[in-house]
Amino acid sequence: MSDTRRRVKVYTLNEDRQWDDRGTGHVSSTFVERLKGISLLVRAESDGSLLLESKISPNTAYQKQQDTLIVWSEADNYDLALSFQEKAGCDEIWEKICQVQGKDPALDITQDPIDESEEERFEEIPETSHLVELPPCELSRLEEIADLVTSVLSSPIRREKLALALMSEGYIKKLLGLFRVCEDLDNREGLHHLYEIVRGVLFLNKAALFEVMFSDDCIMDVVGCLEYDPALVQPKRHREFLTKTAKFKEVIPITDSELRQKIHQTYRVQYIQDIILPTPSVFEENFLSTLTSFIFFNKVEIVSMLQEDEKFLTEVFAQLTDEATEDSKRRELVNFVKEFCAFSQTLQPQNRDAFFKTLANLGILPALEIVMGMDDLQVRAAATDIFSYLVEFSPSMVREFVMQEPQQTDDDVLLINVVIKQMICDSDPELGGAVQLMGLLRTLIDPENMLASTNKTEKTEFLSFFYKYCMHVLTAPLLANTAHDKISKDLQEGSTKINPVCPDNFQTAQLLALILELLTFCVEHHTYHIKTYIMNKDLLRRVLVLMNSKHTFLALCALRFMRRIIGLKDEYYNRYIIKGNLFEPVINALLDNGTRYNLLNSATIELFEFIKVEDVKSLIAHIVDNFYKALESIEYVQTFKGLKGRYEQEKDRQSQRLNRYRRDARSMDEDEELLFNDDDDDDESEAVEKSRMEEDFADSYGKYMEAKKGAANGANGANNNGKAAVSPPASQAVTPNNSSASSVKTVALPATPVVKTAMVGLVDYPDDEDEEEEEEEEEEEQSPRKRPRLSS
Hints:
64% of the residues lie in helices and 7% in strands. The protein has 792 residues and is of the alpha+beta class.
């Protein structure tokens, strides 16, 4: 078998039942010839000396605890433990032990306290033969009994046998009888032994023994035994506290005697576990697991019994919402419901669902709406705890109730607005309650836990409701504290002093930080609704007023809000920021911060770095155009030079894009001249065509034919030559390379109406021939002036 070395601490149990550290070393499992078997060896890591050599005996009960601990007993009063640094090492050694003993490594104990063969033997042999033999229950034997009880705790088998012995002989009640005798005689030595005995019996971890010890006629004597800790000079007075100081309050009389008894028992046992018993050591924490289970199942039973008594709960909620109920009574009722909900956390999920549905049907939410609006701080705090249980259980249930509330003219009565107002009005300087309520609000408005059904979408409906009826209540303190920013700016123009509008009060600053945290959450998760709200209220401008706050954490919250908005890379937001010049307060804060290297500086730089890396062009252009002169002196980071570089790259890119559509000026002169001539002719012909063509076309055509005949006779030759001179430029513009006359007619066919209209004009207005020539000369003079505008 291969050696496996793991780092461990070796512990042994001393006479005082305390674990002593024997040193740190490395453990291995090796065959030792002298011991004739596989053994556990631990050699010290300091000098290699042997700390432990223990043969793995087939009959020794090894126990694995907490994944890194192996405990076993080698003799009646010699208990050992190995505490591993790593779980892997513990598992490997545990597998080796189980392999030697032929046991399943999945088990935590290699030897069952009572296996099947032993059970069969117990049935055949008289019952007392397998039990630990207990000394007679007498005052003179108390020390012997105490030694026996404490000695068996390390051995699971012996613990089991002792528990059976204590049960079979009615030994517990006899011991408690001796306690009363010792107390009457003021026998301190006997009382100290009884403390050890009762503590040891509790550590046997047996539910059957707990049933006896925690019964009505025994539990106060058990508490009495535990008062006499030998380590204390004077005994504690636990019984006095339980009987006189602790008062059982029945907000509504409980008629079920069994339920009342169960409540008393649970309270006292919880007191024993939490107050009387010392905190168990790392090796003892499993000893009281059954005690924890005992309390757990008691609570489950109490909740179930109360839940089934509908008359009781109906009366609780009736009195809770009754205006005639006294404040002290209402406080007790709210505390009862709070504790009732806390107990419900012990229920299984399906039972917890039924529990909260029962409360919902009984009207828990309308009751909370009333109670949370009361002036009593204790009542409000307890109501907040109840509300948190409900939101944690089912946010949808709370949202559904809120949306079904009658829409009254006063929004203040809505449950969510009551919660928001309580958050805003929290009197705690540290805003503990406000932080809790902010977390609950975030859960309620989180789209991740909103359900979408086939008929309706909870997300859309609830968010529309929230932004219509509740958002203005949430943002009211923020808007109120930034309301006069414009006035203050006018008063302090050119000043870098702290804006007096910003809250200097630390508690107010904390509240605004909480509100901003919630609004930042909304920006991330509510795209449409929050965008509309920010634009309508100009909310970002108001938030950025807080960049001037003397409380850096509040300025950072304002900056984080803007960073989330820019992080969305939404051009709608970007245009809003540019139009409002909303970078100005951020840059002012950066410049006012100077050369201090702090979180505000880093967060602001990161904001601009994000814009640069993500290449948000509109924001880069805005920042460089408006603020680069103020920022260019910041050279300890390359962020602003990088922004300038991005800006220049974009300008070059746009210039190249414009130049792509231009030709070289020298090669374009001739073409442009022809183009403008063509454009002038087109403009002239279009103007004539629009004014005369439809009305006079038939008449003009006849005159044109007569003019042509007259040209053949030479009657008007000079005039016709002048008129014919107008047409060649048109034909040249569309027929390059000196095309033949026939090709001119073919290509220029679409322009025929233009030629005709030119002819029409000449025939109709022979006296205006000189005017047309003057216009042509003017157009030729104007065309060079057009060229620079087009090519510019």
